[in-house]
Structure formats: structure tokens, C-alpha cells
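for the recovery benchmark. C-alpha cells below, seq after
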């Protein structure tokens, strides 16, 4: 990377170079200066060679200090493809691979590349300026390279525009020079009476192509195109007007000595020379100017087309704070007509603070400042919408103006709110799942100790203590049920899925549902339709019954003691946004379950919170606030979404959307055959490696297993358990492990343990036990999974079966 002094010196060199006149070869001068300032091997400037901008043609090329002939090359397949019409590009190394094989720069081993796009005053791409080297350009300093290239690119673009517009875009001097031979215009001296050409100045010779001595034999007709109206006869008419002093400037189509046609601007003036009247003709070649004006008119038409077709609203203000122009997009956005806007300021009915703020933006822009804010706008009917507003300085007809650009961001704001809702629900789900896991460990030990204490009280004949412990156990079981609801919200439980007809399933739940409703509330299930044509979904039947029950109980609580709850079932084609997660529904086949009530409805400020755990509008003591949270968890665990339509005082309609399933898309699970009850042995025998990171749960399970006659080796960490398996004097007969632990999960531990001790039976105990399918358990060598809080009877039966199995 070049030192600071070197970079400053290079910048000074380039600044001086671009400030100098270009001479006959301005691009060659710029290329040479840039190569010297960057210290690179090759520099070239190129412009589009065809109307379709598919090829580039160099205007100047320097390679290793030599000036090369200009050439053309295709844009596609070259490093320049990513520069023209885009932005600065810098490749420190590896650009050689982007050159087609056999091309000049590939053959010269150019491996570094820096280029800057060229644009005209309207922003349209012209070409590019590029520098290449065999080592990193500018020593790998991309910012330095960009600065130098940008300076030279501005000058190069100016040279291109100057050469395109030519002398026609420069203003002629305000007055003609008095000295005939030094005049920049072609000057003719005509005889007053005949109009014959008596003399011409050097500029006329240069412009028309005839030598000075050839002019006396020429007439006006000889230097005219003679295409009507540019004939000798018409020229004589203009001369006659000049004799009367009433000849305005006019344009004339004249012919060069070589036969080419050009446009001149002609002014005829009577003058006295040597005491005799003459006519003076001052002509100026305006061929390039006419072409430039035509180009300017075309460019203005292009700008106007862009202004009219833009999707953003444009509003142009003058220094008097009046609207000069407004495009159709702005009129559509606000709902005004052009007559209501152009020539006026802000409408009188708008709030004073609203007008004051926006006029302050206009004043700041007129003072040269660009203002960018996200705010709101008001329509004539008083409705408001969110906008992105930019007000910037703008020169129009050489006067300062303020251009306001208005973009409607209402949809973007809505999408942002939906994204925040989705992220919030995801975060709440993760937090809820973590809390549920920790509470499961606590309840495992609490319920376990209560059961053991109750057994001891019963054995000791203390009925009062046994009853009290039983009551405590029931309270703990209610806590376990709440944890199950939290896990359902967090989507960490997954029951068996099978394809089922939704109508019959919901009808089976109606008797239970009806029993929970007072007689003053009518349950209308006619919308469930005919069971023979009921839509099918792949789902856990028990969980869907919970969804229906919770939605109906929510509807019941919204009713003032009486009213209607209507159930419906049908198809949905997708579209809209999920109320609970904020995501947009993908188009497709969905099955829709509707639960509608005519109760109090849901206020907008409440709607965004209704699916959050423990959120409730009921008074303290009525409900846990987990009902709709469970619905959210179960529905999304099934790949579904929730739509809610409600207005305060007009009831609410909850719509559950589940992916539709074909009858053969998921094999139904056969019902498990009921196993005959077997008497459990009084004592168990064997060595059990118990891995549980929670101290209370671990201590409880260790004592419980020891009380059943097992030898228990308790380890708090999976890595400690692995160390014990490697060095144990006697093998374990069974591994009993938690799943969610530091360093390793229970499934990972099970797989690793079976490598150290093949055939070792593994029993997984976890709050997530229902979420593991049989294939996952088998792949990790787990024979069974038991949910927390642990059911002692179930645990003892599993231990008996696993320890008794041959292995």
C-alpha cells in the first residue's frame, strides 16, 4: 500500500492533469497521467461501440509506457461487465481468470484490476476508465485507486460530453469582434445593390473550404444548398430585407466546397465602408449546436417521461413555497387533482403543525440541505399513510427549487411489524421451552419425593400424612399439566401423526365440548358439513381436540353469558398473514377450521398479544392465559397458521389453517395392542449408570432406584459418565440418562456409550420424550423414552423389562 505522501502526490498530479486543457488528444493525456499516478502497467478509457451497449471501443490505451492502437472488445465475459453502468470495482488479484484466453491483457499477465464507470450528466452509462497491473493496482489500496480513477473519470466524461455536443453547446461571445480578420464568425461583405460577395474573412475561408482568392468568383447560390427554401432567389429576398433594416437572424442551409451540407446562423446588417453602403453577413456554423439542442430536447423528453412514469411521488417547490410541478404518482398517492396542487401551497384544512414541519423541510432544501425522514402523510379525506420523504435541493430553469420525493412505505411497515411479531413469538417459544425444561426437572424430584413419602406414610399407617402428601402430589400434577401446556406452545411435544378426516374427529369432541358450555350458549356445528366428504389432514388427533376445546372455551369467555358459537370446516387457497407468527401464507391447499362467536370482539391493542403465554384479559384467578398459546404451538407444530377476524363489539372468528393431506400421504399408525398387566417384582437387580445434571432430580432418581434394589452409579455430566464407562471395574447393565445436558445430549451419550459397551440398554428420560420418533431413538441405540416428570410405576416397569431382556 503506498505511503500517505505518495498518495497525496499522486492526487496532486491527477488534479493538475485534469485541470489542464486536453489538447488534441485529451484522453491520451488522461490515460498517461493516470498510469503514472497509479504506477500501473496498463490504463485505458473505453466507450460503448454500438447502440445496444454490447461492445466497448477504446479511446486511448497505454501499456508499459507505450501508446497502443485503439480496439474493440465485447462487454460480456470481461471484468468490465460488472463496472459499466454500475459502480467502481477493484480486484487486487485474480482478475486474469476473467479475461478470455488469448486476449491482450490476459497475454500480458495482468492480474489486478480497478475500474470506474463513466456516466453523462443525466446518469446514463457511457463506458469506463480502467487500470491494470501484474501486481495489485495502487499497492492494493482500493480507496486510493478509486479516488484517482474517479477524478479522471469525471474529466473523461466531461470530455466525452464536450466532444458530443461540440462547439454547438458553448455560448458565442456576446458581441462580435471589431477586427475583421480576428472574428470567430464568418463575415461576408456584400455589394449593396447586387449582393455580390466582395470580401470574406479567414474564418469564412476556413468554414466554407474555399481559399480567399476563390471567393470573388462565387455567388450566394454557389455556397447554398439550393434545396428550397435555401436558394439564390431566397437569399436575395433576405438581402433586400437587410437593406431596409428589418432583417431578423435566420438559419441557412449552406454547402461546403467538398459538397457537404451544414447549418449556419446568419445575421445581415447594413454598414458603411469607405463611405459607401454595404451589407455585412455574419454567419456561424450551428450544425453541432442544432444536433446538441436536438439531443437536449430528446433528453428533456426522457426526463419528463421518467418524471411522469416514476412510481414514487415527485413534488417540485419553488422559492416562494409554491408547487411548480407534480407527477401522476404523487397525485394518485394523495388523491389530489393536478389543479388542486400545482400553483398552490399546503391546503388550509391541514393541521398547522403538520404544515409547519413540511414547509421547514422545503426551506432547508432551498438552503442547500437534503432532508430524509420517515413520517406520515394526510389525504384530503383525513386518512393517513406512512411515507419515506426526501426533500433535496434542485435547480430548475437556473433557479433554486426543492424536489420532494415521496414513497409509500405502508406495506413495508406492515411487513416489519409482521416480522417483529414472528421474532417475538419465536423468542417467547424458546424462553417458554427453557423454563418448562427446568420446571420439569424440579417437578420430577418434587413428585418423586412426594410419592416416596406417601408410600412410607402408608406403610407406617399414618393416614393423615398420606392424605396430606397425596394432596401435595395432586398440586404438583397440576403444575405438570401447566408445563405440558408450555411445551405445547414451545412446540416441543409431538404426538403420533396420522391422516384423519377432520369432520368426524371434531364431531367426536362435541359432547365433551357441549358439557363445558352453559345452556344459554348455543353451539352450532352445522358448518362442519357431511362426514363423508370431510377434508383430511396429517395430525395428532388428541392435540387437534385440544385446539378445538381451547378455541371454544375462549369464545365462551368472550360471550356475556349467552350467545352463539359457530363451527365451520372448509378449504382455503392461502394468502394473507398469520396472526400469531406474522408470516405470509403460501398459496396451496389448506383445510380451514372456523370457530366464530358473537361476543365482545378483540381490541386492536389486545390483538397483537393474544397468543403470548400467560396473557389474559380476564380477571385474576380466571384462567392461566395458556389456552391460545397452546393453540399457537400445536397449530404451528402441524405446519399450520392462524387467522383472526375481529372488531370490538362484533365478535371474533378464529380460523385454523392446516395443510391438506391425501389419504395415502401418511400411513396411519395401527392401534397398539393392549398388553396384559404383569405383576412387578418386589426388587430389581443390576448396575445402572444414571446421568442427570440437575442435582435434585438426580438425587431423587438415585434414591428411588436404590430403594428398588439397584446399584446406582450417579454422574452429573455426560463426559464424567464416558470416563466411568472407560474405566469401570464392572460393566453397567443399563444406562438411564437425561437428554438436555451440558457438553452432550442424551442421544449423543447413548450412541457413544454403546461404542464403549456394545449392547448396553439405554433408557432416555426427558421432557421432550414425546418428540422423538422410534427411528431416531433406535438410530442412537435407545430402547425407550420416558417423559418427565417421571411416572414411578412406568419407570419401574421399563427397568424390569430392559434388565430382564437378554443381551
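predicted aa per position
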Amino acid at each position: 500500500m503506498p505511503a500517505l505522501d505518495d498518495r497525496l502526490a499522486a492526487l496532486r498530479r491527477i488534479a493538475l492533469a485534469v485541470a489542464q486543457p486536453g489538447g488534441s488528444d485529451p484522453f491520451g493525456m488522461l490515460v498517461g497521467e493516470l498510469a503514472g499516478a497509479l504506477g500501473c502497467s496498463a490504463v485505458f478509457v473505453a466507450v460503448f461501440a454500438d447502440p445496444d451497449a454490447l461492445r466497448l471501443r477504446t479511446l486511448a490505451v497505454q501499456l508499459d509506457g507505450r501508446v497502443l492502437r485503439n480496439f474493440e472488445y465485447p462487454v460480456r465475459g470481461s471484468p468490465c461487465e460488472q463496472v459499466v453502468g454500475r459502480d467502481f470495482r477493484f480486484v487486487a488479484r485474480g482478475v486474469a481468470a476473467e479475461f478470455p484466453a488469448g486476449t491482450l491483457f490476459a497475454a500480458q499477465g495482468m492480474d489486478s484490476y480497478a475500474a470506474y464507470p463513466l456516466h453523462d450528466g443525466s446518469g446514463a452509462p457511457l463506458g469506463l476508465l480502467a487500470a491494470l497491473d501484474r501486481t495489485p493496482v495502487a499497492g492494493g489500496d482500493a480507496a486510493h485507486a478509486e479516488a484517482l480513477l474517479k477524478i479522471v473519470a469525471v474529466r473523461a466524461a466531461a470530455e466525452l460530453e464536450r466532444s458530443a455536443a461540440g462547439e454547438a453547446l458553448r455560448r458565442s461571445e456576446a458581441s462580435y469582434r471589431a477586427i475583421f480578420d480576428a472574428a470567430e464568425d464568418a463575415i461576408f461583405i456584400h455589394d449593396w445593390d447586387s449582393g455580390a460577395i466582395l470580401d470574406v474573412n479567414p474564418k469564412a475561408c476556413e468554414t466554407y473550404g474555399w481559399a480567399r482568392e476563390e471567393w470573388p468568383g462565387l455567388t450566394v447560390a454557389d455556397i447554398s444548398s439550393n434545396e428550397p427554401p435555401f436558394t439564390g432567389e431566397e437569399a436575395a429576398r433576405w438581402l433586400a430585407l437587410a437593406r431596409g433594416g428589418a432583417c431578423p437572424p435566420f438559419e441557412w442551409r449552406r454547402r461546403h466546397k467538398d459538397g457537404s451540407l451544414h447549418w449556419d446562423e446568419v445575421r445581415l446588417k447594413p454598414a458603411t465602408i469607405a463611405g459607401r453602403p454595404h451589407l455585412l453577413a455574419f454567419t456561424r456554423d450551428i450544425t453541432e449546436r442544432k444536433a446538441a439542442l436536438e439531443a437536449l430536447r430528446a433528453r428533456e423528453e426522457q426526463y419528463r417521461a421518467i418524471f411522469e412514469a416514476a412510481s414514487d411521488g415527485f413534488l417540485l417547490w419553488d422559492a416562494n413555497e409554491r408547487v411548480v410541478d407534480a407527477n401522476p404518482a404523487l397525485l394518485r398517492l394523495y388523491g389530489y387533482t393536478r389543479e388542486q396542487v400545482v400553483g398552490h401551497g399546503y391546503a388550509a384544512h391541514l393541521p398547522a403543525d403538520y404544515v409547519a414541519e413540511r414547509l421547514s423541510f422545503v426551506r432547508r432544501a432551498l438552503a442547500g440541505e437534503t432532508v430524509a425522514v420517515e413520517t406520515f402523510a394526510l389525504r384530503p379525506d383525513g386518512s393517513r399513510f406512512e411515507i419515506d420523504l426526501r426533500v433535496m435541493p434542485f435547480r430548475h430553469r437556473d433557479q433554486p427549487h426543492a424536489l420532494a420525493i415521496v414513497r409509500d412505505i405502508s406495506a413495508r411497515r406492515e411487513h416489519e411489524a409482521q416480522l417483529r411479531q414472528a421474532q417475538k413469538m419465536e423468542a417467547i417459544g424458546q424462553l417458554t421451552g427453557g423454563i418448562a425444561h427446568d420446571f420439569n426437572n424440579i417437578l420430577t424430584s418434587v413428585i418423586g419425593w412426594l410419592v416416596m413419602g406417601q408410600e412410607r406414610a402408608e406403610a407406617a399407617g399414618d393416614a393423615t400424612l398420606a392424605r396430606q402428601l397425596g394432596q401435595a402430589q395432586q398440586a404438583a400434577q397440576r403444575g405438570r399439566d401447566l408445563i405440558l401446556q408450555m411445551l405445547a406452545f414451545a412446540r416441543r411435544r409431538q404426538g403420533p401423526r396420522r391422516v384423519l378426516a377432520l369432520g368426524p374427529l371434531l364431531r367426536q369432541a362435541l359432547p365433551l365440548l357441549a358439557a363445558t358450555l352453559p345452556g344459554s350458549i348455543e353451539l352450532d356445528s352445522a358448518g362442519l358439513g357431511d362426514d363423508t366428504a370431510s377434508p383430511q389432514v396429517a395430525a395428532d388427533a388428541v392435540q387437534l381436540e385440544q385446539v378445538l376445546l381451547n378455541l371454544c372455551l375462549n369464545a365462551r369467555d368472550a360471550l356475556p353469558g349467552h350467545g352463539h358459537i359457530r363451527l365451520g370446516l372448509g378449504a382455503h387457497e392461502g394468502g394473507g398473514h398469520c396472526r400469531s407468527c406474522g408470516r405470509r401464507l403460501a398459496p396451496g391447499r389448506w383445510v380451514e377450521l372456523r370457530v366464530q362467536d358473537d361476543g365482545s370482539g378483540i381490541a386492536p391493542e389486545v390483538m397483537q398479544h393474544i397468543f403470548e403465554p400467560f396473557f389474559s384479559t380476564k380477571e385474576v384467578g380466571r384462567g392461566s392465559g395458556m389456552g391460545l398459546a397452546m393453540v399457537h404451538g400445536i397449530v404451528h407444530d402441524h405446519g399450520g397458521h392462524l387467522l383472526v377476524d375481529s372488531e370490538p363489539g362484533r365478535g371474533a372468528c378464529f380460523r385454523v389453517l392446516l395443510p391438506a393431506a391425501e389419504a395415502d400421504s401418511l400411513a396411519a399408525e395401527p392401534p397398539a395392542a393392549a398388553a396384559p398387566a404383569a405383576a412387578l417384582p418386589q426388587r430389581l437387580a443390576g448396575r445402572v449408570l444414571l446421568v442427570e445434571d440437575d442435582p435434585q432430580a438426580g438425587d431423587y432418581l438415585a434414591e428411588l432406584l436404590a430403594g428398588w434394589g439397584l446399584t446406582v452409579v450417579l454422574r452429573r455430566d455426560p463426559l464424567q459418565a464416558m470416563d466411568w464407562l472407560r474405566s469401570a471395574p464392572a460393566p453397567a447393565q443399563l444406562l438411564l440418562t437425561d437428554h438436555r445436558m451440558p457438553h452432550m445430549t442424551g442421544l449423543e451419550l447413548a450412541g457413544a456409550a454403546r461404542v464403549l459397551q456394545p449392547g448396553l440398554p439405554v433408557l432416555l428420560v426427558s421432557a421432550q420424550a414425546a418428540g422423538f420418533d422410534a427411528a431416531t431413538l433406535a438410530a442412537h441405540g435407545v430402547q425407550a423414552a420416558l417423559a418427565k416428570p417421571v411416572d414411578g410405576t412406568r419407570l419401574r416397569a421399563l427397568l424390569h423389562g430392559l434388565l430382564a431382556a437378554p443381551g
